[in-house]
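[step 3/7] fold_predict: job queued, chain A
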Amino acid sequence: MTVPATAIAPLDSLPCYTSALKAIEALKPTEPLYLLHPEKFAAQAKIFLEGFPGEILYAAKSNPHPYALELLWNAGIRHFDTASLGEIEGVKTALPDAICHFMAPVRLPGQAKAALEQHGVKDFVVDTDSELDKLLAEVGDAKKIRVFVRLVASLGGALLEMSSKYGCRPEEAAKLLKRVQASGAQPCLTFHVGSQCLSPFSYAQAIEIANRTVGLAGVPIRALDIGGGFPIAYSGQEPPPYHWYFDMIKEAFANMDAKDVPVMCEPGRALCAPGISLVTQVVLRRGDRLYLNDGIYGSFDEQRFASFDEDYPPSAITLDAKGKAKIPGGELLPFRAFGPTCDSADKLPRSLMLPDGINTGDFILFGAMGAYTVSSRSNFNGYYPDNWAVIVA
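[step 4/7] structure written:
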């Protein structure tokens, strides 16, 4: 396997197949294989572009790969939530006309200045006086920028909370808004209800907190960014339909005193997760153990979060004597799955239900692998999944 490459093949040069089975038959991949589904990227983008009452910022951290960026751009996404100068540079390299927003509350010294001067980034986030001081010192003329004060939104309903590290309470946020207003920058508010949020009501609660903060500050905000957290339906999880979220957000926003300001959101997982599936190979079967060519240090990093009980839906595939793909026989049984590295921690925390007939050399297809897989992989032990194909329906 290869280490991370500095250049990638153009998207339109990748091999194309009509199904994952056809890709497996043709390629017989011995290394992990990512399968891109352009129609799924387009479908997810359409849901948000048509349903959400404001601007859509794709959270690049969920999958910053140029293929994902290009497919979302083709689907109509023009704004990108970027959390570092490196992410900004990656997005702008792939998509020179993209509009980036620097939505991390803490930045390395000099990154805000570089983002503004080199890439025209005008949106920044703070949640402390010291970060506001640093931001204002770097940008010089504060009138050029919008400053989003981040609120704590620990409201439950999400499988991964996002408020223990960043955010401030309404009283502190109100003071920051006043400082932003006095600096000449445009004061705005933002929050994040948590990743894979299964409760639409959490957004309404957070919007009410934002409204209360505006009242405490006595400062009219210029925009409200409600963050990300929109879920997808992993195996075993059936979140409410997206229109429930959008309707709840619209109703809550209509009750705000600042109801006429622009509203933004930062979906990441919801836009990219369904658009990539993953083919792995069983390197060894040992009783109820399966040793795969990908694991925790590769595409399954997010499985390490104990509270994040998502299951990527697996399907077992074998090739018959004629090279045709089929499902192995046998009843479904629980298998323990291990990655390829020599670290004993490199194992999936939950069993995979697969046919008893699965064996060494067979394949396992995992769906909904587009989020926090490509972005979190490493080349630990020299393994680095980076093979691609396109599935055209």
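[step 5/7] annotate
Residues 39-272 form a domain with the TIM Barrel fold (CATH 3.20.20.10).
Residues 35 and 389 are 5 Å apart (CA to CA).
exit 0
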